[in-house]
Structures are given as C-alpha cells and as structure tokens.
Amino acid sequence: MALASIQTPDEEYTPNRGVLYLTGVSAFNEAKHEISVQVRAALNGKELAKSEFSTTGDLSYYPDFELRFEPLKNVKAVLFVNYYYPACGYASGNNLVFWLEDNQMIRVLETSSISEAGIFYDSEDAILPSERGGIGDHVLVIKDQSSFEEKGDDYVRTEQTYRITLYKWTGGKLVKEKELK
Predict the structure, then answer these.
(1) Who wins on pLDDT, 85 or 70?
(2) d(C-alpha 126, C-alpha 97), whole Å
(3) What is the C-alpha separation between 163 and 180, in angstroms, rounded?
(4) Lowest mean pLDDT among 23-37, 71-85, 93-107, 116-130
(5) E strand or H helix at 179, and its extent?
(6) How far is CA 139 from CA 15, 94, 169, in A?
(7) Cα–Cα distance list, 47 to 40, 79, 81, 100 (Å)
(8) Residue 161 is inside which H or E element, if any?
(9) 3-state SS, residue 3
(10) What is the pTM of this model?
(11) What distances in angstroms separate CA 141 from CA 15, 48, 111, 115, one per listed residue?
C-alpha cells in the first residue's frame, strides 16, 4: 500500500500546527482501474477528520500529497491528493480535498492528466485563490488537450482545445459557475 504524509510544524504562527496529514490506498478495483483512497488529519494520535473516495489509479501508482492554506471561507486546510505513475499512457487523478472548520473532510474536485509522448496530452490543472491568476473564493480549472503527428524528425500539433471552468466556493461546497471555451 502506498502511503504519504505531511506534518505541519509546531511553530506558533503555523496554521493547524502539529497536525499530521496522511493518505493511503484502502482498496483497488482492477476492473475499473480505480483505487479507493483515504485522507486523514490527526493530532497527538487522535483522528480529527477523514475522507474516503475513489479515483483513477492502480496499486503501482505513487502518492503525491500537497498541503495548502487558502483564504477560503470555512476551510482549515486544502490538500492536493494525487496518485500517478510517471510514464506515458497512465492516467492520474488529482483530487482537491478541503478540511472544513467543522472537521468534515470532503473531496470537492477531481482533475486528471494523461499523455502519450508524441501523440497527445490531456491535462487539467486547478488554480486556487492565492496562486497567480487565482480569484478570491473561486477555483479555476484549466483544461488543455493537444494531438500531434510525426513529421520527419519533429512532432507537429494537429489539434488543440483549451477550456477554463470557474467554480465558486460557497463555504460548504464547490459550485460550477461558468465554462469558457
């Protein structure tokens, strides 16, 4: 089982100081190529919050876990939980999980990425309010898809689509507001 963790420092100015964040695979559905993932927050050996959900993946995937503190109403911490395999043709599911003030931990969004060198890529990235291009109380999702053909020694892009989806955080859920193509 893959396991990843993040420990917040005990320094007084650190949000959620001393909290240990953990993620790991709890089940595998081989037919659907899907893993069930648990995410937990704990302090001094006591579980504070837990979430479990299914995402794209396999037992050989690597966990990637990032902790962020964002100026979002009712959110203690933002976790990016990604299970991926660093090779062509393997899809990854990157999950955005919010730990709320009432100790609920909910997955609010899943983005995905896959590529095949020289043939195509399909990538989604979430931009949070504190990031460059971010908008307060919103999450932007940028989707970029391209196809390529081999022309001599080079690859030439034959098709590209680009889409931006804007989601608003209401303090309790993420709501799709609009999509620009």
Answers:
(1) 70
(2) 12
(3) 6
(4) 23-37
(5) strand 174-180
(6) 21, 14, 7
(7) 7, 16, 18, 14
(8) strand 154-169
(9) strand
(10) 0.88
(11) 26, 29, 8, 18
